[in-house]
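User: Structure please.
Assistant: Input sequence and predicted structure:
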Amino acid sequence: MQADLGEWKWTAGEWYGDASDKGIQTSPDARFHGISAKLDAPFTNKGTPLVVQFSVKHEQDLDCGGAYIKLLGDIDQDKFGGDTPYQIMFGPDVCGTSNRKTHVIFHYPPKNDNLLINDEVKCETDRLTHLYTLVVKPDNTFEVLIDLKSVRKGTLEEGWNFLLPKTIKDPSVSKPKDWVDIKKIPDPNDKKPDGWDDIPAEIPDPDAKKPEDWDDEEDGAWEPPSISNPEYKGEWKPKLIDNPAYKGEWKHPEIPNPDYVEDKELHVRLNNASHIGFELWQVLSGTVFDDIIVTDSLEEAKAYAEATFSKKKGPEKEMFDASEEERNAKDKANADKDSDSQPSSSDEDEDDHDEL
């Protein structure tokens, strides 16, 4: 593990559906946080679905930090850290207003690389609990759900750069030298109007007046400043017409990629995975993780979500809204108090009069 690590609290947080329903919360600020746990049994998802699901609550209004879970092989938990190899990394990551996404990263042994999903997946950034679910199916498809609603799905092969492309540009073919792909050309019959070049871009300001203290002998001959000429039409260019020689956009012919190798087991993203863990950096701490499940059944994961996440969602929102209303009321009262404590202009005038 890295030095100067954060701690983990066992808490339901500041707002919750049930005070006894606790999760683990990062603390303090500006720390790396690491914690891991062993699964009941090693899991390989060959020929079976894989479902990873957990809830995240950013009570601190997270501005920069991760909130993702890692699925790992057999590890030394005492040395678990950023360099520990993982098989899947999944969950939200926030840094500023422009970088807000849900990581879906798979380790792919044939490339010995951790591959990010090609198209970014959104994430939630408010201060309430949200549920993140990743589903990988034996037919080599996947789906990401947030709060049990689908936000991305497709094939694994199209979603990640696991494999080489199926087709490549034919190296034996090149664009013909006489190929014309310019759609528009200047009209050869269009002529510049007579007198076009006689109109200057700037003219002397007719409203400018010679300063009274101007001395021609000392200051030189006075000239009015220039202004843009409202009659100036700009640089003349002939109008464009369709190019009669245009052949269209040239497309490079493609052929099957001789190096492409199909992988029918792309869905096997866990191989003897035996541990899960959180290993992340947060500038502001306070994220609560809960409701974690790794299973081969989406139905089981949804049932678990109904018994945990869905059950507390409504009461937690009510408690959060009440706390925000109370906080806003206190802020307003303090602002009014500060305003009342400031002397008015009339009071200041009276003080000045008394001193006189």
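The longest strand covers residues 31-43.
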